[in-house]
Design goal:
Blueprint (H helix, E strand, L loop, with lengths): L17 H6 L4 E5 L2 E6 L3 H10 L1 E5 L5 E5 L3 H8 L12 E3 L2 E2 L5 E3 L2 E6 L2 E5 L5 H10 L6 E3 L4 E6 L3 H9 L11 E6 L2 E6 L8 E6 L5 H12 L4 E4 L3 H6 L35 H10 L3 E8 L12 E5 L2 E12 L4 E9 L9 E5 L2 E8 L9 H4 E2 L2 E2 L5
Parallel strand pairs: 3-15
Antiparallel strand pairs: 1-2, 3-11, 4-9, 4-10, 5-8, 6-7, 8-9, 11-14, 12-13, 13-14, 16-19, 16-21, 17-18, 17-20, 18-19, 20-21, 22-23
């Protein structure tokens, strides 16, 4: 088969699965953390239905890891995040925020604790390796901060559990939500976690040697294909249904945790210090002027996700912006995440949104839009999870 020349260069890195994704039908890519990521395997609605009914395998090697080691690694890692890590166990994952001195969000990674002084930050799209190395320079702490040879895959969907059982045996079924385990598959060194960016049952498979990228992809697809597994990409439809943030869209350096309703990830009463603590105390005490809400937008189904921030207005005045919007074929609604003035957050059906086709009415609704308790992601084949994010 002749592969189309996409104009790939050397300035942007390719993942260990890059050639495999081309063979398996990747039709479009974007750039994330200075790497190519497959964004198109055909119809995004078909990708969504495969995710929610069967399983998809996604190349998410762009989720680069920042590895923090050394005698002061635990103390240093706590300094980066407002979430209390004091009770985090080895083998556990946590969803955390990285904040700056003004309380702005720099990244919302998954944190993995590999040892008492050994951590990985599994990143969203921003340069936290450089941030952490800069913070370390004058911290007075003994830490080493590097990017290891680690490249994740996501296996997501209701059939991911049985595919994992076929790959790793029954022992994998005991892996709890937001925990991980060091494993091997055919001699390939891995870390496997019960996490993922889909709000479905799923796993992330962290390859620890890029030389095995092609072999790992093909092994998983060979086992999963008879069970309905297809190559895919992270689903915009499903992540908006689940109210999951996309950094640079729904949050950025000017967004604070309280605006997003992520108070649970901020512990201002803990003794440990962290970057942004005083700013976040001030924001908590003074309150916020805007907040994230869910919207249902009236009108014909949106033709794909928004590619710009859409103005949200009330009475002819702009009160905020839509950050992520898409048509959900399951809910049969146009759904969106928006950042609006606090006074506009309780207006119910009185907002207007300026979409690519013109003005449309919008109603504020609860988010997430589907499975708000994340029962699908947190429940394995052998019963409910014993721990959460």
């Amino acid at each position: 088969m002749q592969v189309k020349d996409y104009g790939f260069g050397t300035q942007i890195r390719k993942s260990p699965y890059f050639e495999a994704t081309l063979r398996w039908g990747a039709q479009g890519f974007s750039v994330y953390n200075h790497m190519y990521i497959p964004r198109d395997f055909g119809d995004p609605e078909a990708n969504f239905w495969t995710l929610v009914n069967d399983a998809i395998l996604c190349d998410v090697a762009v989720e680069r890891q920042v590895e923090i080691t050394g005698p002061d690694a635990a103390r240093f890692t706590q300094m980066l995040t407002p979430r209390d890590l004091s009770k985090m166990a080895v083998g556990q994952c946590k969803y955390v925020l990285i904040t700056n001195a003004e309380g702005g969000i720099l990244n919302d990674p998954i944190l993995l604790k590999l040892g008492e002084n050994h951590f990985w930050l599994s990143l969203a799209d921003s340069d936290i390796l450089l941030w952490a190395q800069g913070v370390a320079v004058h911290s007075g702490m003994q830490v080493s901060i590097t990017e290891p040879d680690v490249s994740p895959l996501q296996l997501q969907g209701p059939k991911s559990g049985e595919i994992m059982r076929a790959l790793f045996g029954d022992e994998i079924m005991d892996l709890r939500y937001y925990w991980f385990r060091e494993m091997e598959l055919d001699g390939i060194p891995l870390i496997v976690s019960r996490t993922g960016w889909s709000s479905e049952l799923g796993y992330e498979i962290y390859l620890r040697d890029a030389a095995y990228g092609d072999a790992l992809w093909e092994r998983i697809m060979a086992v999963g294909l008879p069970m309905g597994l297809k190559p895919g990409h992270t689903s915009t439809i499903r992540r908006i249904e689940g109210g999951m943030l996309s950094y640079h869209a729904d949050a950025d350096i000017h967004t604070n945790p309280f605006e997003l309703g992520l108070d649970r990830l901020v512990n201002l009463d803990m003794e440990a210090d962290f970057i942004g603590k005083f700013a976040l105390q001030r924001i908590r005490d003074n309150g916020v002027s805007r907040k994230q809400v869910g919207l249902v937008i009236e009108g014909d189904p949106l033709q794909g996700p928004n590619t710009a921030f859409w103005a949200v207005s009330h009475g002819g005045e702009t009160v905020g912006k839509v950050t992520s919007a898409v048509y959900s074929p399951r809910l049969k609604k146009n759904i969106a995440l928006a950042m609006v003035a606090v006074d506009a957050a309780d207006l119910g059906p009185e907002l207007q949104v300026w979409t690519q086709t013109g003005q449309a009415q919008a109603t504020v609704v609860e988010r997430p839009f589907f499975d708000p308790r994340k029962c699908l992601a947190a429940t394995a084949a052998r019963g409910p999870a014993q721990a959460s994010a």
